[in-house]
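Reference record
================
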Amino acid sequence: MLGIAAIPSLLLAVGLLKMPESPRWLIMKGRLGDAKKILYKVSNTPEQAEIRLRDIQQSVGIDENCDDDVVKIHESKESHGVWKELLLRPTPALRWILIAGVGIHFFEHATGIEAVILYSHKIFAKAGVHDTRKQILATVGVGLTKFIAIVASTFLVDKVGRRKLLLFSVIGMICTLAGLGTFLTLAEHSGGKIIWALVLSIISTYAYVGFFNIGLAPVTWVYSAEIYPLRYRALGNGIGVAVNRLMNATVSMTFLTMSNAITIGGTFFLFCGVSVVALFFVIFFCPETKGKSLEEMESLFTRRKNADDTNK
């Protein structure tokens, strides 16, 4: 059974062999000809490919009218000093981008999803489902809900927009976490005898998983991957993913301790409070990036900051 898990990894490895290099990375290395070929493959029209090529060349510091297949990139245009520029002396727009990119990774797991995914059987047991087979069946429902929500998100993220999907997701999470905390508290105090509390606990669990996976889960990775300027992209994403994994581990290792200390219902009320903070974070720190190129992001966050400064 454990060996079956190697099959998706093998398919991914085979697929990676056919995966082209990023056109932006190629241009940063001076390989304009290779970048142009890939852009022609992934763009809707040749005209769009040419526009993207010129924009990327300009952002890297190469003459946008250069038609050479290979150009020499001076060391001063490489990644020297990126740490200082991003973390110690960032421009106002770059600081805004870093807060948005790292913050969205923080809230993805700080809002409690790992507690539900890893300990759903214990949640259902507290709600009153004591039969092991029924717990497994209810847990399968969590995975199925996650799958359906993620599939729906793939069709919505470009149509609806990142910010709107995030707001919808987080608001839904707040409501379902509040409901889950309430119903679990009632079910736990009654020893699982209040059937409607048991049923609503399960429904709230599924609804929370659905709201999370239709917005915050997938948009976190889309949003953080597209907001950093080319020069700071690798470092910014690396910091964001490190924070993401740290919060994943923190919630995973502390959930049982917290649920014993403040009850399982109280723990989900805590996650609900964190989700409220996440909602304000999205409102104030995450502008819409739908339809924007990487080369436009810094100006987008500059306009956002200026607009907030004006409101103050």
